[in-house]
Amino acid sequence: MTTSPPLGKYLASTEKKTRDKAIKNLSIFLSDSSRDVIAKPDMDKLWKGIFYSFWMSDKPLVQQALATELAELVLTITTTSSSLAFLRGFWETTVREWNGIDRLRIDKYYMLVRRFVNASFRLLMRVKWDKNACEEYSNILSDTGGPLCPFDIRVPTGLAYHLADIYLEELNKVLSNSPSPISSPPPAPLHTLFRPFLILAARTPTRVTYKRIQSSFFDPLFSTLSPSLEVQPRSHKRIRLMDSDVGAYSNLIANACYEDPQTEGKMTGTLLRKMLLRSLFEVASQPETRDSNRRKMYALWKEANEGDDGDDVE
User: Fold this and answer.
1) Residue 267 to residues 168, 263, 274: CA-CA distances in angstroms?
2) pLDDT score at 139
3) Parallel, antiparallel or unpaired: strands 230-231 and 239-240
4) I want to staple 71 with a disulfide (CB 3.0 to 4.6 A). Which of 50, 113, 115, 202 is the partner?
């Protein structure tokens, strides 16, 4: 039985018809439940072909359709472990090839990343936010070769920034498309899904990276989870969330837990905020956290707790 698809040169062909046929054949190959797991060397070759297949797509509508088709492959694969291995291949290839993307193509790769983040959340929701699957996905993002790895110098900062910009939005979208209340999946475990951002914020050696994670991820997250409170961002100008800001992540608030969907059930935004802030404090306290980042995380924790009654770290 063939365990690796001989499609690399066809995926990267200059002929659109050849590339389209290769993608369809790949979908058939990946959906075959009888095949073995793709070995990593073969996965690397496969993903290089897919990456440059997308590189060759040069019209907006074609790009959008292909980005969606490629991301849907994550859900075509028959086992969760194989889907996660496919996702690891996507991120490792994206990190490796990112700096070679020219300015005329960068926007379409931002779109591709967004589609894959969305498909990843749909995969995890399909398996009812299985603890092992969520932890593996979190590790894929944080491990060497992952887009949120704090110590891999190959990781492009622009890729990490883009993830910080879109992560909450895409999770909220997926949670808005959950089935009817009768058959709805368990709540999404925010601590597990958000851990890569906590680790990167704590250990990044780059001041700008920390600042971007706080402004694009932490501030909106903690604000959303406590809409009745005033929020003081790092500019020290106090602001109050408008109704439109609160509604932006309303599905996330309504369908989330901290860590264990099976035992915790859905939590209120106030309780989630309290527990996630506690996690922020704990990560800031770890010896691996850089001193400059520790001070900023402590400051964020203190500011976010202002006005909370009795919200202390035990």
Assistant:
1) 17, 11, 11
2) 97
3) antiparallel
4) 115
Distance CA(111)–CA(297), nearest Å, equals 30
What pLDDT is stored for residue 193 in this prediction? 97
DSSP 103-117: TTTHHHHHHHHHHHH
CA of residue 32 relative to chain centroid, distance:
27
Number of neighbouring beta carbons within 10 Å of residue 137: 23
| Domain ranges, ordered by start, for the chain | 1-127, 135-314
Question: Can you tell me the distance from the alpha carbon of 201 to that of 157, in angstroms, rounded to the nearest whole number?
Answer: 13
Phi-psi region of 204 (alpha: psi -120 to 50; beta: other; left: phi over 0): beta
| pTM of the full structure | 0.89
Contacts of 126 (CB under 8 A, 6+ apart): 75, 185
C-alpha–C-alpha distance, residues 280 and 275, integer Å: 9
**Neighbouring C-beta atoms of residue 158, cutoff 10 Å:** 15
Chunked mean pLDDT (size 10), the chain, 314 residues: 62 82 87 79 90 88 93 93 95 95 94 98 96 97 95 91 96 81 78 97 95 95 72 41 56 91 89 95 97 97 74 45
3-state secondary structure 74-93: HHHCCCHHHHHHHHHHHHHH
